[in-house]
Amino acid sequence: MDKLKMHSPDLSQDNIAKIRELFPGCVTETRDETTGKLRLSVDFDQLKQELSNDIVEGPQERYRLDWPGKREALATANAPIGKTLRPVRDQSVDFDTSDNLLIEGDNLEVLKVLQESYLGRVKLIYIDPPYNTGRDFIYDDDYSTETGDYLRQSGQAEELGNRLIANTEANGRFHSDWLSMMYPRLRLAKNLLADDGVLFISIDDNEVDSLRKIGCEVFGDMNFVATIIWQKVYAPKNSAKWFSEDHDFVLVFAKNRQAWFPNQLPRTEEMAARYKNLDDDPRGPWKAENMTARNPYDAGVYPVETPSGRRISGPPTGTYWRISKEKFLALEADNRIWWGKDGNNTPAVKKFLSEVSSGRTPQTLWSYKEVGHTQDAKKTLLKYVPFENTENVLNSVKPVELVQRIVQLATKPDENAIVMDFFSGSAPTAHAVLEQNRIDGGNRRFIGVQIAEPLPIPEDRMKTIFDMGRMRLLSVIEEFKAQGKNTKGFRVFKLDNSNMKDIYYRPDELSQGDLLEAVDNVKSDRTPEDLLFQVLVDWGVDLTLPIRRETLQDKTVFFVDDNALVACFDSGVTEDLVKELAKHEPLRVVFRDNGFVSDAVKINVEQIFRQLSPSTEVRSL
Q: Which residues is 549 bridged to in the sheet?
């Protein structure tokens, strides 16, 4: 039977396969120097010939953003890794029933691990990446290794060291390092977005121009939607040396701008208050709209007579009536023209509240009065997280109201939308999803990813920013439940090296003395549930599907989403157990490679399923 590959997709090979579909003559096979296996490779000279009548050697001048390390960043985005997600039940809330995810780990690697399980399924991604201010920490990715070495290192080596560095302005690669951090993450994020999905990114003046350029490169210029200005403070900073910086930006990129449109926002009380009913019209409140316009309109010049008897020869000089005389007479007959209380004013058209849209078109200027400011964000964080040291309170946290506005624009309550934040921090995005679901009864889900960045001062109940976000969500859920509100918990996962021993990836280095060690290819500290979730990741299955654990013939068997996947990782699997599992007719079934009671049983597994459940896909690990 086939074995699971146990590493994230090799995106470079996927891209080459797409090129081969268009230009089969431009792709060939070469032998990988590291693994000795055949891989697809592109004949770039031939590809140039396919794409151009004339071949021009050397780099061409064109409009683009370039920086030292860009090609390495692209290679890093495409390189596969041999890592997995391990469930952490004791840090989760309602693990067995929740469909929310909170993942601890480097977001670049987590994005790779999630590529198959959530490919094209995420409706909204909101991120608030570290701003490039010269003080904040950014991710220090390793761009120096080749693809083969990267796979080997990520699959079996120790962690590559501290993944966070201070990017000071004295660094000669000040902008380059930040761009190299963002570029591969945006490329991987785009893969996860649904066709009608959208990405919102918070940023400040330091990198807004560069971020828009790389965003346009990843998503395409045609899919840039808007630059939103968020008023982040409620009072000017008089201590500012030049200007008081009162705003941040939020850049918006759609996966496909022709398929994504923002939802309308609810009308405000102030907007509704503009509608009165000055003449007790039975159709309800209305407001008077100007009947003149500046655009020339041939049918828009004619005299009118007021109810008081005054004759108006026409619209004011330089303007035109917006409607024809025939339309005007029809509206007047329907009591839709307002002449003022004394019946002597210039005519206006009555627009009834009952006839206007219940929503309002979103604007690109967001006031703190509507979506909160930085002090609101800190107060909310302090409300839900019991800090022992004020030095640990984040200065860059975003208001829940700000993210709620984004959630309202990009998702609907009843579409089971997945909302993702892979710079989760103190989890304001997850908080906003829970809060918006509470308000409108929605069924949105969240995926939050945060590296285990240490707090400035470790505390008894939390050591990292990930712990801070988890504690915040615990408090929010407890509050909702105390109010009698139904709310979802979350499943916690931790990114870790593969559950498989090193020999799984490098059998060529196996020596005779390692043969006994090689009998079991699973690490000794890994549980059956660890193996189950690695299988779900490898098979591209949703990590929040319901899981049922049963004991059959003294063996533990996992049923994922009833019969979507059945797994047994115990040893001593007999032919009788295999037959019993086959009777469930699962879509997929997986066993431990050395888990069978004999080689004969292992050989017969596929034949048994072929007879009893021919549509079942059988694999081992």
A: 558
